[in-house]
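S1.2 Input.
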Amino acid sequence: MSERPKLKLELTTFDKTLEILGWISILAIWVLTITNYTNLPGTIPIHYNGAGQADGFGGKATILTLPLMATVLFVGLTILNNFPHVFNYPTNITQDNALRQYTNATRLIRYLKFIIVIIFGLIAFKTIQNADGEADGLGIWFLPLTLGLIFIPLTFYIIKTLKTK
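S1.3 Output.
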């Protein structure tokens, strides 16, 4: 692999908006979890099957793993996004296409990290509802929604990347 160009990318308004929404979402999932923690019963759902039904239970402290994991993933991807020259690309990166490829890739990562936080937030919200008896599972819609939110943009990005050789 030849040495890829290292570029400083300028964030567009859309990119900045996604970043801000991501950080607000991180804060929101923590607020949701902490404000509801004391009202949770001692045992809560900690795992759901493909149909969205709770099939594993544990102590209420496990609810804290959701915002923690969301935060670690979000911060980790934020740091990684500063180094688009180390990403894997389905096409060769040259001086001519580096800016377009890096912009597309970092925008995808920015979108995916926001969606990851939203997904963890939905799981936390539905877990709290389940623990309070207000809901039964995540719902049949959760798995298809999650897969769509991740794989539709990923497919779009790959097609866009291959077209931008």
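S1.4 Remarks. Residues 13-163 form one domain.
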